[in-house]
Design brief:
Layout: E1 2-4, E2 13-16, E3 30-34, H1 55-64, E4 70-73, H2 80-87, E5 91-95, H3 99-108, H4 114-130, H5 143-146, H6 149-167, H7 172-189, H8 213-237, E6 244-247, E7 261-266, H9 276-279, H10 281-286, H11 295-299, H12 325-334, H13 336-359, E8 360-370, E9 372-375, E10 378-380, H14 382-390, E11 398-406, E12 422-429
Parallel strand pairs: 2-3, 3-11, 4-5, 4-7, 5-6, 7-8
Antiparallel strand pairs: 1-9, 8-12, 9-10, 11-12
Helix pairs in contact: 3-7, 4-6, 4-8, 6-7, 6-8, 7-8, 12-13, 13-14
């Protein structure tokens, strides 16, 4: 995947941390947010590709909704919008088809009493240190290529310990917390390249892992995240937190009532940019989230998927959008499959826009942040396409304003020419009727 941005890197407004919700960001302006909160409270509990940094959704939530209102993220990923809505005194609804996203979001937004969590963690670590039973190790494709034998053994011990406490009656919220911490170290101790969004092995990137290091990493991560959870619990104790509702379903068919949501905020996936099931496949194998079928069966349910059938891209597909159809034609000349992937992404996004319009109250806003792609050497400015689509007669939003938000911190190390320099933020508004 290659991403593109505007040539100019000059910003009219720069922010170190939070943006005042009283500020109106000018239409078509360029802003830079220097994030300092990417690991604030439980935001850093688990790495997640293409992650929303907290300051932007925090501004949008506080600018375009009121305390006690409801905020929806229809493609919630690792739950940044959901957590920021909770911290801002709003009811939060997070929708995502990805099981890892649902688990991480559920754990990072639930308050766990420090004393109980710390006590259960000590019991868990004591079991890990003293067990004499040979651990259960799941079977999955190329398992012994992904992990060294002693790493498999140590991961098995941790997994067995969590399963033991789960079967012994430990409350699910504590078990889920331990599972997320366990998941957070799996990529680190594998042979996979830690800086690539896809799970691949590169000999130059294989880390040297020593015997005992896997359990040490789990213990260290557990200690850090117990402290983070304690800080979250204290923060929520100073406000009146509203309800969090998580829905494991498609963003194009949400089980949410008509005209019931006060604000929607999301950062949708990029065209063929992040293959989430493949990115998290090692974690999902260990957590038992992948069934007997191939990963491709799971991928077909994702917006932005590259898993398509040959019969679907034999003919050039058109969208009736002036910003998109010329691009589809150009891409089709060199790569019909890629042309269809682009077409399908925007068809899915149209369904999602219509669905979000349905659930929003009249006059409510949908704030959508998305960057641009380079597909077979052809720039695809997704914000322009989505702007035309959202305001079309088929959908029905009004485009209130848009602005470019620059990024300066990146979880994934990407060559500079391919690095995403920022996203366009579209502020769409549902008509009052």
């Amino acid at each position: 995947m290659t991403t593109v941005s505007d040539d100019s890197h000059d910003y009219e407004l720069e922010f170190f941390g939070d943006i005042s919700p009283d500020l109106t960001i000018p239409d078509l302006s360029r802003i830079l947010i220097i994030s300092k909160d990417q690991s604030y409270l439980t935001h850093g509990i688990h790495k997640f590709p293409a992650k929303f940094f907290p300051e932007l959704p925090r501004y949008l939530i506080r600018r375009y909704s009121v305390k006690g209102g409801s905020v929806l993220d229809p493609m919630c990923g690792s739950g940044t919008v959901v957590l920021e809505s909770l911290l801002s005194g709003r009811a939060a609804i997070g929708v995502d088809v990805d099981p890892m996203a649902q688990l991480i979001t559920r754990v990072k937004t639930q308050s766990l009493p420090h004393n109980e969590l710390d006590s259960h963690a000590n019991d868990l670590l004591d079991w890990i240190d003293h067990t004499s039973v040979y651990p259960s190790i799941p079977e999955f494709n190329y398992r012994d290529n992904w992990f060294q034998p002693f790493v498999l053994h140590e991961l098995g011990i941790i997994s067995d310990a969590i399963n033991h406490f789960s079967s012994s009656g430990l409350l699910p919220e504590f078990c889920d917390f331990f599972r997320v911490i366990f998941s957070s170290i799996i990529r680190e101790v594998s042979n996979a390249d830690p800086h690539c969004t896809r799970t691949v092995i590169r000999k130059k990137s294989i880390r040297k892992i020593s015997a005992g290091e896997t359990i040490f990493k789990f213990r260290d991560a557990l200690t850090k995240q117990i402290n983070a959870m304690s800080e979250l619990t204290a923060s929520l104790g100073m406000i009146e937190p509203k309800e969090v509702v998580l829905k494991h379903e498609s963003a194009t068919a949400m089980t949410i009532e008509n005209s019931s949501i006060d604000l929607a905020v999301t950062s949708p996936p990029y065209i063929n940019a992040v293959d989430y099931p493949r990115t998290h496949q090692l974690e999902m194998y260990w957590l038992g989230m992948i069934g007997d079928g191939p990963l491709s069966n799971m991928k077909r349910n994702y917006i932005g998927t590259e898993t398509v059938y040959k019969r679907e891209y034999e003919m050039l597909q058109y969208s009736s959008l002036s910003t998109l159809d010329p691009l589809l034609e150009k891409i089709f000349e060199s790569d019909p499959r890629r042309s269809f992937i682009v077409f399908k992404f925007f068809e899915d996004m149209k369904k999602q826009l219509i669905e979000t319009l349905r659930v929003l109250r009249p006059g409510a806003r949908y704030c959508l942040a998305i960057g641009s792609n380079l597909i077979r050497g052809i720039p695809v400015h997704s914000h322009e396409i989505l702007s035309e689509m959202a305001t079309s007669s088929e959908v029905g939003f009004h485009l209130e304003r848009s602005f470019f938000s620059g990024l300066i911190r990146h979880f994934i190390r990407i060559p500079r020419k391919e690095r995403m320099l920022g996203e366009w933020v579209l502020i769409l508004r549902k008509p009052e009727y």
